[in-house]
Amino acid sequence: MDAQLPDVEAGKRFYGELFGWTFGVAEAYGDSVPARLGGEPVAALTPKTDGRMPTVWTVYFSTPDAGALGERIRAAGGQVVGGPWRVGPAGTTALAADPEGAVFGLWQPGRRPGFGRRHQPGTFDWVQLYTRDTEAADTFYGGLFHEALFGADVRPDFGRVAVGEVFPAEMPPHFLVHFRVADLEAALGAAARLGGRTQVSPFETSYGTVAVVVDNQGASFAVLER
Q1: What domain range is 97 assigned to?
Q2: Which of 3, 72, 85, 170 has the fewest CB atoms within 10 Å, counting from its CB?
Q3: Are 187 and 212 in contact, with CB atoms under 8 Å apart?
Q4: Residue 96 to residue 94: CA distance in whole angstroms
């Protein structure tokens, strides 16, 4: 996953203090700055090159063939909104949208396989799709990713819920990435001190206690205490 930010240096200060991340140097291909925890990759911060584009976190689904998956997305009623693009030796990426317009990424790994850590404090723990038509979402994503989403030996990382259950019903369908934290209230206090704000106060879910935060540049994400 990565955050597209107007000011990557400000993002490094915010997320570095909030989650204890350190950062590598911007890579020559795409200017993406890798974020690490304990030396392992956990995310990336990417400079937003077009001010008309949203400031967002994007989740990427791994695939052995981004082009072929893009064709399946189109056939299922979604669309490929950008790419596939080769990102140097790291891999190949594309941006797609489901039939309701929720945007997600595709990642065909090269040298960069994906997360080095997850399901630990300061790392990815869950992504939730907020959608208006949960049955249509089940059909679309189940058809694309059935083994990854529903395989018996795979720990679930992905859920979906009707958008009106947490956000106003008029909010567009979207993905929300969740970061694990050891202490939810402490994380919310730290985010506020760093210039962020709580968008949705803590609430209980089947997978833990969640709050939604907006960072100091407007990108939304969730913090999750299990």
Answers
A1: 2-225
A2: 170
A3: no
A4: 7
